[in-house]
Amino acid sequence: MEYEIIFYHSGKTAECERLLEKRLSKLGLSALPSTAATDPASLASELQQALSCSDIVIIIGGLDGGRQSTDSILSQILSAEKERPDCEKLVDDNDNIAYFLKAGDQCIVVLPDETEVMEGMLDKRIMKELIKQYSLTEQKDDTPPIETVTSTLRKQLSEMERSRPSRSGAYADQQRREMKKLLTAAVAVGAAGVLLLLTAVILLLFR
């Protein structure tokens, strides 16, 4: 399933896109190319176009409470519809506002363009609403926390340090064994040389 983002009077487009992708990809949702609107007429046009392509439309920004705020424009647009969608106004502990509108198989999510506020609202309510609306399943993040990774690395490094002397000792023992073999071979060669010399002397004496 795909969703589309419309930015309206929002400057933090890249940060918002990354946050939404990170959160919504866990629900199996993928993003269509984002669009932007700068006035009520273009917002209405972009919204109409987005709803013709996507079941989920996310409008980011413009929640300033003014005459041209996102919620005011949506109210005007939807008031002309025969069947008005269900609308939930979501307010967090700091009085930040978001909206979740749904009609049939489609929904519109309206979020402020502050990533910290968006993240809190997504985690607290909107993700659950999307899961319920479309029977989605959230994928769990199996990435271990940084503390676990750090602890494991420290343990591995400690074990490497402890095992290093034993490897050095084993290498030294091997070197000693090699030297012993060389000395034995040298003694054997020396003894053979002495025997040859004695043989040569005896042959000279009995000539």
Structural class: alpha/beta
Q: What integer value in Å does the Rg equal?
A: 39 Å
Seen as an oligomer or otherwise, the chain set is: single chain
Distance between the termini: 109 Å
Number of helices: 5
Shape: rod-shaped
The helix fraction, in percent, is 55-70%
Structure description:
This protein has 207 residues and is of the alpha/beta class. 55% of the residues lie in helices and 17% in strands. The protein has helices at residues 13-24, 40-51, 70-79, 115-134, 146-205, and strands at 2-8, 30-31, 35-37, 56-60, 86-91, 97-103, 106-111. Strands 1, 2, 3, 4, 5, 6 and 7 form a 7-stranded mixed beta sheet that branches. The longest helix is centred in the C-terminal third of the chain and has 60 residues, at 146-205. It is rod-shaped, with a radius of gyration of 39 Å. The model has no long low-confidence stretch (mean pLDDT 85).
Question: What key phrases describe this protein's structure?
Answer:
single chain, 207 residues, alpha/beta, 7-stranded mixed β-sheet
